[in-house]
Design goal:
Layout (H helix, E strand, L loop, with lengths): L2 H11 L2 H12 L9 H6 L7 H24 L7 H20 L4 H26 L6 H24 L8 H12 L3 H18 L11 E3 L10 E3 L3 H25 L8
Antiparallel strand pairs: 1-2
Helix pairs in contact: 1-10, 2-4, 4-5, 4-10, 5-8, 5-9, 5-10, 6-7, 8-9
């Protein structure tokens, strides 16, 4: 392993104490206290509150970061699959920060409703596909009843929305990056990293071509076989990007979950 790889691993390891400390935090539900800005945001749609969406995103991010930690501590190498794991960490972190960032409560609540709308839409789509294959007539009837209720909720949430934008993962990553990076090149780099991580998630190999690669002899067709090993510098870039957004989102969550002190 190169000196660069060793340095990259050291940077990742520097986050592990805080990562472990967060384990207990996400192990139990912790609704925001009454009177906090986040508790007021939750009143917009109490059955699917903004705080729950943000928390779920952070739990998802933490879980993917923790899985990355496990691979490093066990000295396991996953030259392609690690990027799908890191993609999950990045999206969870970015979406949590995107949900919580706006200073205007109306904007936060709109984003919360957009997330609820997406959640309901995906759940309805999945349950529609499930229902025809349920073996029990009672289960099928119960599922049909649930679908009607979910559809009613979806229509109600849609009616509450002031804006009609749909969730776009790339735009969410870009906006989240703007909250923590002060220069346009760093924001663009964050978006490029997001796109690169998608290579494995979509079973495309092109992101591997920039990693540590050894080439075999060319064959009659002029092509050569490439052997790719895990590039810890690339892993560290993705991990630390996700980690930076994750910690920014946790900080913002704590701010919004604090009850303002009364002024004399």
């Amino acid at each position: 392993m190169s000196n660069k790889d060793d340095a990259a691993i050291a940077k990742i390891r520097s986050t592990f104490d805080q990562l472990e400390a967060d384990r207990a935090r996400w192990a139990t539900a912790s609704p925001p206290p009454t009177g906090s800005p986040l508790a007021e945001d939750d009143e917009t749609w109490p059955s699917s509150p903004l705080s729950s969406h943000a928390r779920q995103c952070l739990v998802c991010a933490w879980d993917h970061l923790d899985l990355t930690r496990l691979t490093i501590e066990q000295e396991r190498s996953f030259p392609t699959a690690i990027y799908s794991v890191l993609r999950g960490a990045l999206l969870g972190s970015a979406e949590a920060l995107w949900l919580l960032t706006p200073g205007d409560p109306a904007d936060r609540r709109e984003r919360g409703l957009a997330t609820t709308q997406e959640w309901l839409g995906k759940r309805i789509q999945w349950q529609h596909e499930l229902t025809p294959d349920l073996l029990s007539i009672d289960d099928a009837a119960r599922s049909g009843k649930q679908l009607k209720q979910l559809d009613t909720h979806l229509k109600a949430v849609t009616a509450l929305r002031a804006k009609k934008f749909k969730l776009n993962a790339t735009l969410i990553v870009e906006e989240a990056a703007r909250q923590v990076f002060s220069t346009a090149p760093l924001v663009r780099e964050a978006v490029r990293e997001w796109r690169r991580l998608g290579g494995d998630a979509h079973a495309l190999g092109w992101p591997l071509m920039g990693q540590s690669t050894s080439w075999g002899a060319k064959g009659p067709d002029g092509l050569a076989e490439a052997n790719v090993v895990a590039d810890m510098v690339s892993v560290a870039n993705a991990y630390l990007l996700a980690w930076t957004l994750y910690r920014a989102a946790v900080t913002r969550l704590d701010e919004l979950a604090t009850v303002p002190q009364a002024r004399n």
